[in-house]
Amino acid sequence: MNTAGTIDRPLTLDPKKQAPMKPSTSEPVGSAITDFSTTSGTTVSCQNRTREMQLIPEALARAHMHDRLHEAERQRRAVSLATARRMQRRAERASLRARRALAMAVMQ
Q1: How confident is the model over 41-97, as pLDDT tens digits?
Q2: Under DSSP, is residue 2 helix (H, G, I), strand (E, B) or coil?
Q3: Given this model, what pLDDT does residue 53 score?
Q4: Mean pLDDT for all residues in the chain
Q5: What is the pTM of this model?
Q6: HEC states along 4-73?
Q7: How far apart are the first and last CA of the chain?
């Protein structure tokens, strides 16, 4: 059975032996780099991805980490605010106890 290779599983892994990709008319401009010859006359095989497309997973991971860092910072602020309120209530209760003790000492 002779089946042609796919983009993910080419017949050969050597890019020089692979058939060059033909630019499609349905693709947007700039989505594929056309074949061109270098000064030595060798043909460089066409790429089917732009640099931006190759960097999409990296940008997605960076955005995900940015969101996670902001969420962690928000959670740290919430915990510190809850701790500050708890300490304020404790200080108010201690102050109230001290005032009562002073009032009791004055009245005797």
Answers
A1: 544 444 556 777 888 899 999 999 999 999 999 999 999 999 999 999 999 999 999
A2: coil
A3: 81
A4: 78
A5: 0.44
A6: CCCCCCCCCCCCCCCCCCCCCCCCCCCCCCCCEECCCCCEECCCCCCHHHHCHHHHHHHHHHHHHHHHHH
A7: 108
